[in-house]
Amino acid sequence: MYLSVVIPVYNSERTIGPLVERLQACLAERAFEIVLVNDGSVDGSERIGQHLANQYDNVQFISLRRNFGEFNAVLCGLNHTRGQYVVIIDDDFQNPPESILTLVSTAEAGGYDVVYSRYVEKQHHWFRNLGSWLVNMLTTYSIGKPRDLYLSSFKLIHREVVEEIIKYRDPYPYIDGLIFRVTRYVGSVDVPHDARAEGRSSYTFRKLVGLFLNVFIGYSLWPIRVFTVLGITLFSLGLLVGLVLLIGWLTQQFVNPGWVLVLWGIGTGLGLQFLFLGILGEYLGKLFMAYSGLPPYVEKERKSE
Fold first, then answer.
1. What is the domain partition of the chain in residue ranges?
2. N or C: which end of the chain has fewer CB within 10 A?
3. What gap in Å lies between CA 257 and CA 251, rounded to an integer?
4. How much of the chain, in percent, has pLDDT values that exceed 90?
5. 70-82 pLDDT, tens per residue?
6. What is the CATH number of domain 3-202+299-303?
7. Which residues does residue 157 pair with via DSSP β-bridges, in sequence order?
8. What is the DSSP string of 165-196?
């Protein structure tokens, strides 16, 4: 098997069939497979996925018992791939299937482990563009991503990297974070980006916050180190200010407005404590969930010919 195409499916009953048909046409000269992962859709996506798996010998269909999230669905799909190269593509037709060949040729020519798509003109909603910008800025510092690399969902991954990614067993996968834990041989290539063929994006403020916290807390020690340095800095300043106040009181150079300083100290101290407790709580919560035995996904059904 030369190429595997993983498609996380969510409420795409109108697009998943035409997408598979178009993949069959544009990849006909390659030995390839398609892995559809239904992530708890509430429309007819499951029925259509079952039909596609029965219709085509090279289509696998996996249906999850509930909506676990896009990254969890992708991780499930990666576990069922066999191709030398694995491409992840969305189900909304914003990425033309023909661009898969562009990713493959770039990987072959450059010897890359991973090739990300780079959009010349993005057709996402402004809110999703803002969220992508924030996450990309964060990942530059948290996982060591190059500043000029855009972490798109449409990407190609070499088999050897896939084998490392699927070793992840915790319930909070972040595919790009796992990639950069494995390799730095990463490239990118320009591809077209079209408007959505059907429906609207499921990208919400809640998902943006969840992704931001997952990247911020789950894939780097950078946050805790920042606050450690901040704590050391504030403690040192506190010692310095205390020394100045003590010298001023001993030399009677100025009168210490005690009640103002007490209120300021109490307010600042409580705010700092709550901040530290929040960060610590995120880490402890992640550790608890990771070691609680919760799987990253649960399969309800798998059909393949």
1. 3-202+299-303, 222-290
2. C
3. 16
4. 42
5. 999 999 999 999 9
6. 3.90.550.10
7. 86, 114
8. HTT--SS---HHHHHHHH---EEEEEE--PPP
